[in-house]
Amino acid sequence: MSAAQTGTTAAATPANGRTYRQEAAVAPVNLANHFLECCKLNRYLTVVDGHRFVITEDFARNIAIPPDAAAMAAIYSRDKLVAQAAILPLGQLAKKLKKKRDRDSYERLFSLIEEQALDERVRDSAHTLLEKGFREAEIKSIEAELNDQLSPARARYREFLDHVRRMMDGAMTPAAFVEEFKDFTANVAGRLDFGIYSFCLDRLFGSLRIPSAVKQLLVGELLVFPPLVRRELLTNILVFPGQTEDLKRFVKNTVLAELGRSVAVEIELLEAYRMRRITLDDLAGTA
Question: Chain-wide mean pLDDT for the chain?
């Protein structure tokens, strides 16, 4: 069973040298159905208990991911890197199939991915694997290309963590740290797993060692992010365990003042859903 199914952390270690926190396992669920629910909410994909977003390591070779869930991620993931990673285990499965009926079903699946995937690279990868008969060399080539995309961003992420530590130690001014945050964000946009970027911000907004003034400045930076990214990251602040009421109030008031009532309601509804105060059916009734 994969980490994404149980709600635990992927076995691989993120670029900061630490694993994500381990969560108690929950009853197995249909991961493809869970991903579908994320898609219906126009969200980035999360693990089943919602405590973190799916990352590329969740589709590593040593992790068993259900094929239907991998297909769902390859087609619909808002994180292009996760979508690219999701096609790899499908290719690994397809190349092992001996029966014509089974192989035909995977060829149809890859044709579907080629037609419907949100990301152009995923569509191209599906076409290549289908055309080359799911050869191991092609799978490794796609895997290497993904790693080449990730490596510089992961290195920049580790560099940013040094600045976070300096900020915590009082060795940087708030203004200098915000400029570093802006540069870091610009450098890793689209080249770092959204789940890792989100994890980093969770720790910033959840740390008592980061001054409130810095957190408020960072909230201001999040307001100009693309709407889907902004909604996820601002909601993360509101649902973070033990988050201060003062920061929650600041976020809500700032969103209302700067972005308007409709955006404020969207964030309020997603917060309620993530805190399990409302269901997907309830949200459908508000549309």
Answer: 90
User: What are the residues facing 90 on neighbouring strands?
Assistant: none
- The helix or strand, by DSSP H or E, that contains position 37, with its residue range, turns out to be helix 31-40
Report CA dihedral (151, 154, 159, 161) to the nearest 10 degrees.
-170
**First and final CA of the chain: distance in angstroms?**
35
Give tens-digit pLDDT for 50-67.
999 999 999 987 778 899
pLDDT digits (tens, 9 = 90+) for 105-155: 999 999 999 999 999 999 999 999 999 999 999 999 999 999 999 999 999
Q: Hey, what are 166's tokens?
A: 């300096």
Which distant-in-sequence residues (6+ apart) come within 8 Å of 220 by Cβ? 254
Q: How far is CA 222 from the centre of its chain?
A: 16
Residue 190 gets the label, from left (phi > 0), alpha (psi -120 to 50) or beta, of: left
User: Structure tokens of 162?
Assistant: 């040094």
Question: Buried b / exposed e across 256-265, counting CB within 10 Å, b at 16+?
Answer: eeebeeebbe
Give the pLDDT band of residue 27 (cuts 50, 70, 90): low
- List C-alpha distances in Å: 285 to 126, 228, 279: 37, 21, 10
Q: Which run of H or E residues covers position 83?
A: helix 80-96
